[in-house]
Structures are given as C-alpha cells and as structure tokens.
Write a structure and sequence with these properties.
With 60 residues, the chain is mainly α. Helices cover 63% and strands 0% of the residues. The protein has 4 helices and no strands. Residues 33-60 are annotated as: Disordered.
Length: 60
C-alpha cells in the first residue's frame, strides 16, 4: 500500500499505526523481505548484571 501511494500519513490512518511503526516495518521489509515482518523478541542479547551476580556468587 505504501509503495503504491507513497503517502505515509494515508497508510498510517488506514491501518491504525504510527509513522515510526510504518518506517520500522518498511525498513525490515527492505532488509529481510516478508521474514523481517515476523515478531521479534525484545529480550536483551546480554545481561551484564546477571554475569556480575554469577561471579560474586562464585567468590562467596
């Protein structure tokens, strides 16, 4: 829809989404195609505090 019209405001109103969401989805689609639009985990890649806790636990 966005590629056809080029009107981000119109697409956002019709789909009930924000412009930042539309930009994020367009970027993901350009990079990874349909697979880029699947839900992605928001879980952090690392947890530095947990590593520190493990080290402290090992020292005690």
């Amino acid at each position: 829809m966005y590629e056809e019209s080029g009107d981000a405001g119109l697409v956002c109103r019709r789909c009930g989404i924000s412009r930042p969401t539309l930009r994020k989805w367009v970027k993901r689609h350009k990079q990874d195609g349909i697979a880029g639009l699947e839900s992605q985990s928001k879980r952090p890649h690392s947890s530095p505090n947990a590593k520190i806790t493990d080290v402290l636990g090992a020292l005690i």
